[in-house]
Amino acid sequence: MKKISKAEIKKAILAVEAERLKHPVVFRPDYAKYPKLLSGRRASEKMVSEFLREAGLDMKKFEALQEKRSVERQRIVDKHKTDALQRASRQKDALHSSILEQSKALRDLASKGDFFPNPSFSLDTPFLIWTTPLLALSDSAAVPFGSWAKFKIVTSKYQGTQKVGFYFYWTNPYDDYAVINASTFMSSTGHVKSHAPWTFGVNTSWVVVSARFGLWIGWPQQAASSPYETVFLGSTGAYGDTFTGGGTNAISISAGVNLNKTMFPVPPGKVVVFEVALTVEYENDDGDIEADFESGDFKIACPVVVFSLLNSP
Fold it and tell me: What tens-digit pLDDT sequence spans the chain (313 residues)?
């Protein structure tokens, strides 16, 4: 059997991710790209502003009121984040124990021959922790049964998806197809905020956080893959308009989820790559979002992937 190096697999994964980035999912049309629509919006805003002034509205006082409201909402969100950081600090030991227990349970499940009549395996250390699009991790560690990563996203970009993934792999050593069932566990602790500042008209911002588990084979090309299993972890959105002002909302993320894939065939001698990822999907008008998984004891963790063969190749 041809020996396959980790460096070659990393290169192949990065090539696959680069190709994916060339064809991003577009949630809705980017109207800001169209000059006629943009100029029309500016003209409408000017008309609304002039109408309000002629109607006797003191624009300076109105804008000052909206600013005061925005500052108060931001103060509340900041307090919410401080509480989340304190809670994460208090719970870090319990969370660490929970991750270790979950890892041990998955590892023991894979090692019990009486439960799985065919060979079972545990992959306890990812060979790669990577971000797509490329984002500098503030810290990370690939260690047996305890791998983790810290990162933070702050963006006013119109729309996009940020992914932070843990990658494991296994080479089928048999002369026949190996059909596998795989399971993993992901833990995530963080704080996510959306902000839609006051403006004339309507302004929105939203962000969604999910955990994903996918398998792909056919190295070095992505010849075959499975749809992701996706588990929703949380979302938040902000809304602003001319009269109600801007909006700022936030949520705490504190979740541990099991992810599973079943009946995945691996050809003889081929590599199967297991991708366990946290994704942050976002969309802004004139607003911005923040997804913080790096402050204090915030982080994401993926301790192990286990899988069993459903046949005897």
Answer: 456 677 777 777 777 677 666 766 655 656 566 566 556 556 656 666 666 667 666 667 766 777 777 778 778 888 888 888 888 888 776 666 666 666 666 666 656 554 456 788 889 999 999 999 889 999 999 999 889 999 999 999 988 999 999 999 999 999 999 999 898 989 999 999 999 887 766 788 999 999 999 998 854 344 446 678 999 999 998 887 766 667 889 999 998 898 999 889 999 988 899 999 999 999 998 889 999 999 999 999 998 999 989 888 7
Spatial CA neighbour of 283 closest among 30, 19, 23:
30
Residue 272 half-sphere exposure, CB side, CA atoms within 13 Å?
27
Q: Which amino acid appears at position 123 of this protein?
A: L
Paired strand residues for 185: 258
CA distances from 155 to 26, 204, 238, 292 (A): 17, 14, 15, 12
Let me know: does 120 contact 309? Beta carbons within 8 Å: yes
d(CA 179, CA 241): 54
216: alpha, beta or left? (left if phi > 0; alpha if psi -120 to 50): beta
